[in-house]
Amino acid sequence: MKISQVCQLSTTARMTSSLPDLSASPEVGQHLLHEDKEYTTVKEGLAHILVPASGPAVPQATPKGENAPQSVFYNPIQQFNRDLSVLAIKAYGEQLLEKKQKSVERHKLKIAAKNKERKRKREEEGLGDVSRKAGKIEGDGLAAEGIPAENGDSLKEAENGDSVMKDAELIGSESNAAAEAPATASTLTPDPISKNDDIPESPPSKFTFTILDALSATGLRALRYAQEIPFTTAVTANDLLPEATKTINMNIQHNRLQDRISAVTSNAMAHMYSLVGEDCKDEKGRPKPSKKYNVIDLDPYGTAAPFLDAAVQAVRDDGGLLCVTCTDAGVWASNGYPEKAFSLYGGTTIKGPQSHEGGLRLILNAIATSAARYGMAMEPLLSLSIDFYARVFVRIHKSPADVKFLAGKTMIVYNCDSGCGAWTTQTVGKNKLMPGKKSGHYWKHVYGQGPSVSENCKHCGSRTHIAGPMYAGPIHDPDFIKRILDGLPSVSKETYQTTSRIEGMLTLALEECIFVDPVSSDPNNPTAPSKTGKYDPAVLDPAPFLFIPSVLSKVIHCVTPIENAIRGALRGLGYQVTRSHTKPGSIKTDAPWEVIWEVMREWTRQKEPIREGKLREKTPGWAIMGMGKGKETAKDEQTGEKAETNDDGKAVEKIKVVFDEKLGAEKDKKKLVRYQLNPRENWGPMARAKGHA
Fold first, then answer.
1. pLDDT band at 207 (very low <50, low <70, confident <90, very high)
2. Which long-range contacts (CB under 8 A, 24 or more apart) does 124-131 make?
């Protein structure tokens, strides 16, 4: 070895030995030394993760256009997913906290009323304000809320005279010991990170909130949940590979979150199933704090289907949040692998522009059926098709009564994919509202009727194909979306760098909610929602799929219609119209296909006539335009103009279509990033991580 090489190596060794270790404060782009390996820091949100300094900080594409393998799996493309997840879980937790605080206040008032009533009775009996037994408070001040004794009168003394409920909902493997002393506002100090403008202050009372990152990889999600959601009390970062768990522990130590995150090396399904058989009562028959998680996040490399059964049992069944990512869009949103889609999600895919919407409903149906086996109902909060993956947020409730509605909210689709693109839906079961014998109403769950359509499309005569079964109910909760949107102006754009796209996509998702109206909250109303949600448990989505005018114009070989003109025509006929978040240039409407095709025919008659010879005989477009069927012999009594007739010679009733572009224009208050273009080539999932950290 040459002297120069030896000197260079010694210099490199000295520089490496001078690098700081994990105890150094996290900074962007810093170099650290851990176990004789050099790492560099990558920041996302408020979390910092370490990647080997020998390779690129972010995945790089090879000259062939493929993504090079990584030693540590970090996909910057998924930052939108992680930003959205943090904000969604935060919105869910804040709603849960509000319910908890309202419950505490109601309990305070109840205790105060009892104390006042006891004082009144003592005064009537001539006892006056005598001293109480140990453990009770004189006068009518509020008592601390603890677990009552058998007589229901045991009260605990509070330091400031205010009372809070003893928390009985401690969750997680390391944070399950029930607190013996009552918690007050002074016992919970805000986390240092809450000083950030986009982080809310810690809750004033004892509150437990646990999260499972079931497939953690580097632990980035777990780090962000612990850092950016201040009321999170415990996060479990699980991974199957010991190398990954080692990386997670390294990142936990570097971010100084050892007290909030625990790394577990385990099969994700085994870890979640371990919570199923927990004993909910102690040796004296008293309820124990549940070990199940408030939130479970499934973000696998590919499909989440194998983990759904375990997840619905490991999440809390009193409204726990289940977050699911499926990155196998080539399975659930295409027609190339119907057998694979059926084996994973229990249904076949739908072909056409609406394939991504159909894929979302396949995933939701898989979750709903998994939960239904255990008497639990699923309530979709937000369902999005994003780039190459689907991301859904659902709430899980224990409700055998609501499970009965599932068959009536599961549909089969007859899709004319080889012809005009029309579809017809049919539910597997039927939920009927029946009058009671004496008064009121009740729900009756019956079989669905036979095929609602023939094997050939009634519009163009082409053969249809079956898709599904898939979920037929609403896929979004407007109040949940509004809560996320309302919080966006206050978050840091530097911390959440994808807020512009989040706002645009959630705005589109909120628009899709116009087809389902909330019902009365009166519990005596038979159509009132159950405890699983705010909507009628039997409600169906009248507009489950989209259509694209440019695609329809190809069927009848006409000039592509103006979108605003089509929207205006449908709104003028009394139908609701909006866009879909899955496709640009899309239209969602509750108008039947008969009306949609009549609007398209009127477009060719009024605006853009079809050139002669464009339509060939026996094609779908030929049938749609009615070529060779009826003759214009009958006359309209009012106008005196010739009208179309059917095969029986009767005049076909026509609707008046007005292409009002002003009525069809979307009244956007501001410009939003609704449909993001791919920022670079080969935009998609990165290669699996290989090697050791």
1. confident
2. none
